[in-house]
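Fold this sequence, please.
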Amino acid sequence: MAEYIQFCTAVHDHYKFSRLAKLLECRYAEAAGNVSLLWLWAGKHESKDGDLRKLTADEIAHAARYEGTKPPEFFVESLLKVGLLDGDLPAVRVVEDR
């Protein structure tokens, strides 16, 4: 049986994705895609609670397939700023589950 994660229908137009897209200067679909890919990666490779503390910003950006013009640290800081990650750089990066 394949592993899976559940998506709430509110993800489709959630304000956090809009805020992330604005910060990253990208399209909404790209921001939502990056976060979705990060969630899928975390569900497969990390503990089920989404603990990303042992990963660097480069590794988190790679897991999300972030290809923006800003550095990986900016990507992670933006996820934290809009509430899609929990914690403080550099030690705690936990995927938000709300």
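DSSP finds four helices and two strands in the chain. Residues 9 and 32 are 13 Å apart (CA to CA).
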